[in-house]
Amino acid sequence: MPSRLHSLRAHLLALWILLLASAAATAYLLVEFYTQSAAVQVAQAELQVARACREIGDRFAFFGTGWSGGVTDPDDTLKRQLTDVVVTALAAHPGVEGGIWTAAGGAAAYAFPTYEGTGPKTDLPSAEIDTIRRINAEALSAERPVATRRVSQTQTLVVQGCPLRGPIQGATAWTMARVHTDQGRAYGQLLAGFGFLAATVLGSALLLGRLLLVLGRRIARLEGQLGRETEEGELPRLRATGLRELDRLVEALNAAGTRLAAARHRAAEAERLAAVGQLAAGIAHEIRNPLAAIRLKAENALASPDPARARAALDLVLDQVARLDRLLRDLLSLTQTRRPTPAPTDLGRLLHDCAHLHDDLARAQGVRIVVEEAPPERAPLDEAQIRRALDNLVLNAIQHSPAGGTVRLSGDRDGERVRIRVADEGPGVPEAVRSRLFEPFITGRPDGTGLGLAIVREIARAHGGQVRLAAPPPRRTGTEATGPGATFELDLPWPAPAIPCPPAS
């Protein structure tokens, strides 16, 4: 079985994993880029808030020039003037709001001149009052600018307090800016990047999934077409799959199938002609010997005045004519094998009938015939043809068995196959003739025609099976082996459901 690493599906899955890995790396880089961009925005906001706070301090110092005495809690008129100071100071700092805070009275001025709302913003942000109070107290206590940062999910709040020098006692300036991390260019780039990444990963996943599904279905269809049985074992004609690359392979396979069919046809013709030539040579050889004997005896009988010699010549002529008749009958059986008509056949009864038919011949040669076993079901066979094949195999076994030998008949079922065996204890099949054992006119006996096993082969082929020389069965304990033996096995299909034999009466 080929390794999964060398399959197309494995390569596509590896590509998908690499795509996921690259997507994860890209997402990580996007997040890092966004984080760094947000940090830069916060740093810029802190710088701008610090500048705005100094700007308020400068404006306040200019505003208080020439004052004498000190003020602890500004009145409303002074608060309006201080608000103008803050507005002027923050006008050049977009997004920054701020004011002036006193330790005694709290907020003395507030302004947000760049507020993008529907109108000017004049009220302090209530949610940040505590932060503003704390940062101003720290700046007043430390007598230097103090900054703080408060981070939430959607924004970062930057606040700075600066101590003021002037006629108002305990006064500090404060500025504040909001950095929205879910807005701005970096956030838009992050969303755009993630959107593009999601679209490409999802699209790639869909394309790869569809490719795997389509390839799997098309290849399974090709496997099904290639697995169909065709006449004479030729390659089936494959249909187009709709995929250009696979269709090129289909076209190549169809072209190879056409060439293979043509080559098989040519080989079959050559084999048929060779078989015809071999058959003709065998027939000529088999006919020439009886004719030569008939001619010799007839010439001797004509030349001799002895009537007994003429009688003996006529007897020999009749024997040779009978031999020629048997030869022609076997040839007709070999060349005109009819199509089998399978019917439920009791294989055990068939084996016993065959053994009984040849029992006299076997006894005359000192050979014993034993039927060992057979399947209890009825096998779908052409009984007449299988009987003829068994006759040839049993006769062959008897003729090759020595006196005291045993011919064994058996049968068994293995799934959708039935195997019938005929085994003898003779000298075995010579190695020189094993490769041509089932060809016509191949025989190891001087009085044989060499057509018996060829007829068995044709009957087996007509049933869709085969006959072969199998390994001899192991000798049973207590039996004397008289030779290596030979076992011929008929291997036939059993496609129909088993039909139980009727109970014996």
UniProtKB/TrEMBL annotation:
EC number: 2.7.13.3
Keywords: ATP-binding, Kinase, Membrane, Nucleotide-binding, Phosphoprotein, Transferase, Transmembrane, Transmembrane helix, Two-component regulatory system
Gene Ontology MF annotations: ATP binding; phosphorelay sensor kinase activity
Transmembrane segment boundaries: 190-213
Record domain Histidine kinase: where: 282-496
Region of interest (Disordered), residue spans: 469-505
Catalysed conversion reaction: ATP + protein L-histidine = ADP + protein N-phospho-L-histidine
Biased segments, Pro residues type: 494-505
Protein name: histidine kinase
Organism: Methylobacterium tarhaniae
